[in-house]
Amino acid sequence: MTDISVPALARVEGEGGLEILVRDGQVTEARLDIYEPPRFFEALLRGRRYTEPPDITARICGICPVAYQMSACQAIEDACGVTPPEPVQMLRRLLYCGEWIESHALHIYLLHAPDFLGYESGIHLARDHPDIVHRGLRIKKAGNLLMEAVGGRSVHPVNVRVGGFYRAPDPADLTALIAPLEQARQDAEATVSWVASFDFPDFDRDYEFMSLRHPAEYPITQGRIVSTGGLDITPAEYDDHFTESQVPHSTALHSTLDGRIYLTGPMARYSLNSGRLPGYIQEAARSAGLGPTCTNPFRSIIVRAVELLFACDEAVRLIRSYQPPSPPAIDVQPRGETGYGCTEAPRGLLYHRYTITEDGAVADAKIVPPTSQNQKVIEADLKDFAAPRLNLSHERLTWECEQAVRNYDPCISCATHFLDVRLTPIQGGE
Amino acid sequence: MADENAGRPPRPTLAVWKFSSCDGCQLTLLNCEDELLSIAGAIQIASFPEASRQVMPGPYDVSLVEGSITTPADAERIREVRAASRYLVTIGACATAGGVQALRNFSEDLAPVVYARPEYIDSLRTSTPIAEHVPVDFELHGCPIDRRQLLEVIGALLAGRRPKIGNHSVCMECKRAGRVCVMVAHGTPCKGPVTQAGCGALCPSVGRGCYGCFGPAPGWTFLPFGTAEPARTVLTLVEPARAKPAQARPAQTDPAPREASQE
């Protein structure tokens, strides 16, 4: 058996590869190579106005710009000592639901489901199952319509600012979205049943899950940072527990929690917060074969479908109770402080920290996206996943390893502020 | 499955390439939810790694290129992409102008700020547009590109005509949409007068000044004093459609067209 090497991983956001080193029939190392060119965002932010990070950091990721805008606003508002009122918070949550819907529908239908069904892409899947792919695209479109209505556009929204929004959407424009979102909710229910019918390998893992937790809500925009290992901290305490380090094969920094490997993302959110989901969605999850936690990364597609259903439901609820914030944004004046922001991007916890000067310049910025936090878990899982499968054909094993990586919906553009699989056998005696 | 195209002329092939970028402009293609499957019927999507494992060998009829050149390896790769492509269309601000990461061009070496071991990082000092490296057939502006403009370019290439993409300023779009000028009415600084149109004047629609994400309209430059304008080669097979003055002004006899009078 030779090493497996996937120099350029497909159906992930960004550029990366996968390499599995095999020596004497044993997997010795699995590496997620991230060669996405670094863009140095933290450095570019230095000296910019405190009002600019939401628009600049959105450009880290075209798939989850709202997550960047929301974590950035929260951190800057924290530094400036203000908290926007409830109507602004609710509108932010509504915009974020749009991003969850768009991103999860994209991953489930176009990036991940084709693996389970043996297709090269969602477009290939559509040739045999057009109705299914149309359903996915319909859900995705509903998410984009919501982002356009609240944010102005779906990729890099323009309506978000520190303190709130430039303009509060007209209630009639949001009410018009209830019909497509109700359709999306029905489509999401069908999605949960559809993905639950896939075949999943037995691959339960012993993860330490980490996510936000909120007393009442399924976490999106706010909460304390908790883990199944007993962590329970505020965003301001993040740097006391999480450490980033650099490895030669990646332009993304690797992250650990008190020295331990941990997982963030939909499985972690669900496992730590499934009790916060509305009753009928918990019931849908149970019908799909999920318990209160999920430890098999291949089944993350079911969790994503459950979260998709939740996001559609939540969006309709928020629209029905929508009160336009007036004014749409509060005044935010700079002060010489450091602020912290944590929100749940579709792929997991996104941490921002900014130090602002008295006169409103960004003195220091730190951004920790979900994919860089998950790199170590992805590598550990790949190693254990590949080990008992070395008898498979090289082609088959390569595809399955790619699928194992896509379980985490890695966003490499984010991680380097992508992915490519190389399975390389090292011959015995080398 | 049976080839549904047997007996028909071969479909044009499309490849999508990523350089240094956020993936948002490629996503814009996947965001054409109503048109995506029709496009995939009319065009052979030969290589689109973000969406498909399948990679068909070139050459390709059309390459859509996202992202800027920031590494020595990418400076080489773009030459291979050019050599394999009949038409090369850049999509988005990174590919046409260097993108937000081109802020590095005006500052000291940034790798040590972000990375503890900058020697592991193989990155160029500058972020540069594709046209500084290879000839480009058409440039689509925007951060991100506009979905309708992307569909127009793909449709035009399929039909063998020039894309109808005007290169007037955002002000023209804003006036046509009947919006109140945020600069005149509220004193809000707005880059609309000097920014390439295409977004639909989104920022003024939410009461915000344009922040220039489609880049400078022709004839304007944001390069700082003392910075030489880079030599650009944007030409060859498909020329960008020039905005014709006669189009913007409905009739020559009209003494004061509304759009022009408010410019």
**Number of structural units classed as domains of chain B:** 2
Largest interface, Cβ cutoff 8 Å:
A-B, 67 and 60 residues
CATH architecture of the largest domain in chain B: 3-Layer(aba) Sandwich
The chain-level structural class of chain A is: alpha+beta
CATH topology of the largest domain in chain B: Rossmann fold
Major beta sheet summary of chain A: 5 strands, mixed
Shape, per Cα inertia axes of chain A: globular
State the CATH architecture of chain A: Orthogonal Bundle
Identify the overall geometry of chain B: globular
Spell out the CATH superfamily of the largest domain in chain B.
NADH:ubiquinone oxidoreductase-like, 20kDa subunit
How much is the average pLDDT of chain B?
A: 81
What is the succession of H and E elements of chain A?
EEEHHHHHHEEHHEEEHEEHHHEEEHHHEE
The Rg value of chain A, from CA coordinates, equals: 21 Å
Assembly state: heterodimer
Which class of secondary structure composition applies to the elements of chain B? alpha/beta
Question: Helical stretch count of chain A?
Answer: 15
Give helix % range of chain A. 40-55%
What's the order of the H and E elements of chain B? EHHEEHEHHEHHHHHH
What does this 3D model show about the protein?
The complex is a heterodimer of chains A (430) and B (263). By secondary structure, chain A is of the alpha+beta class. In chain A, 44% of the residues lie in helices and 17% in strands. Chain A has one domain (4-426): Orthogonal Bundle (Cytochrome-c3 Hydrogenase, chain B), CATH 1.10.645.10. In chain A, the strands form five sheets. In chain A, strands 1, 2, 3, 14 and 15 form a five-stranded mixed sheet that branches. Chain A has a three-stranded antiparallel sheet with strand order 6-7-8, covered by helices on one side. In chain A, helix 4 packs across helix 5 and helix 5 (122-128) packs across helix 6 (130-151). The longest helix of chain A is centred in the N-terminal third of the chain and has 32 residues, at 86-117. Chain B is an alpha/beta fold and 263 residues long. Chain B is built from eleven helices and five strands, in the order E-H-H-E-E-H-E-H-H-E-H-H-H-H-H-H. Chain B has a five-stranded parallel sheet, with helices on both faces. The longest helix of chain B is centred in the middle third of the chain and has 13 residues, at 147-159. Chain B is globular, with a radius of gyration of 20 Å.
